[in-house]
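Example 3.2
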Amino acid sequence: MCLGCLDEDEPPATRREFLATALQLTAASALGATTVVEAATQVWDIEASGLTVENGATLLPAYQAIPMGASNQTTVVIIHDRPGIPKDLQELARDVARTGYVALVIDCAQRGTAKISTHPDALLSEAFTLDVEGDVRAGIVTLNGSGPNANPVVILGFGAAGYTALRMALNDPLGVVGVITLSTPIETTEKSKTDPRPDLITLLARLNVPVQFHAGTADPAIDREQLNWLGRFVAVDPDRRELYLYGGAGPGFYLPSSTGFDKGYQVLARKRWQEFLARRFS
């Protein structure tokens, strides 16, 4: 079974088959990656608190977690496509900080709540996407500053927020050096009728930073064609691109508050993004 592709003639793997293959690959890779594993498993004491990000007239709730005494300067910015900063996103920020990285969660999705009733098309528009990118930049500046010595940034995006993360990595001036996406479609069937934004499938060829994709094979927003496309995309540059598929998982497999939460897959995905950070940004 290939973790980075789907064969049209091969039925999707069962969860047991998937985990068995994943464990075999994990064990094999661990033999040559002791230093990375040690860096990823070191646990730091942290401090965490809420804060407010100001972007013009918009005030955005945020949450930061900081490792005490860690020398790594990379900041991990976490964004979600649903409003609010629930406990599981706060815990994710603390997980990132315990791994040795400054973490910042920004509630960018709340900007859209006021627009849904007055302009249902707005959340799918290019204008709204650019507004959200501005919110993320404001959060980065709040934490890092904007000078030439500002800390590098990795963006971790859930669902549609992964779109924002990848767009910013393509053309952002604030040092986005890597991206992690969970349950992010690269193409959507529903589009803005008045101001459509481009699909990722037309943009990703220009991506030149390390990226790690996580996707469930039962996620209705990411069909088999998209998974196969991602597999081919990763195969072109495997040194910088990673794709992990979770057999039978839906869009909410990582977060405990989701009805589709899967603890085993969460643990596996956490280990993978920790090693991604340790290997590339330590």
